[in-house]
Amino acid sequence: MILVVDDETEIADLVEVYLKNEGYLVKKASCAAEALHIADTQPIALALLDVMLPDLDGFTLCRKIREKHLFPLIMLTAKTEDVDKITGLTLGADDYITKPVASNRWRSLHASRHSCDDISGTTRLHRNLLRRQCTTAADCTSTMKAIHAPSTANRFR
Q: Do the Cβ atoms of 133 and 139 come closer than 8 Å?
């Protein structure tokens, strides 16, 4: 499941539609408190975090998630300054993407279907995920399946 954290409903809805159309399960949160609760209670494979949230900034949220969880975090934000990118990556984000997001950038987020033995064929994001969560080939397979859920209508309810 992919966690989308953004207080702008229109943006969160747009990201959700795109990801669901690509076959991913999506859970949305509009504030950091809700995101932390979801991260602690649901099986999250990836989180997309906005920086500007109403209760905590996304950098603090990233740090708090990193204290307990190893799933990949991508900052998805309108903040384009280099200092913001460096801050996000330093606090534990695996990538930093600025809005608006080009369609080819979305495609780069898709889960690779390569095995642990072929890590060179995966994206940086997925290599990081595999390194953090996979100790055996079976771990690798289940981790990749968790990211790329089957695209059936029943899974989205």
A: yes
Cross-strand bridge partners of residue 73: 47
Q: Give the least confident one: 93-102, 103-112, 145-154.
A: 145-154
What DSSP letter does each residue of 91-119 carry, written as one string? TT-SEEEESSPPHHHHHTTSPP---GGGG
Query: Could you tell me how many residues make up the chain?
Result: 157
pLDDT at 156 over 50: no
Diameter over CA atoms, the chain? 42
Helix axes 124-133, 137-147, angle to 10 degrees: 130
Asked whether residue 139 carries a pLDDT value surpassing 50, the answer given is: no
User: Please, is 153 exposed, middle or buried when counting C-beta atoms within 10 Å of its C-beta (0-12, 13-18, 19+)?
Assistant: exposed
Classify residue 64 as left (phi > 0), alpha (psi -120 to 50) or beta.
Answer: alpha
What is the H or E stretch that residue 65 is in? helix 58-68
- Do 117 and 141 meet the contact criterion of CB atoms below 8 Å apart? no
* Confidence bin at 103 (pLDDT 50/70/90): low
Rounded to whole angstroms, the Cα distance separating 31 from 18 reads: 21
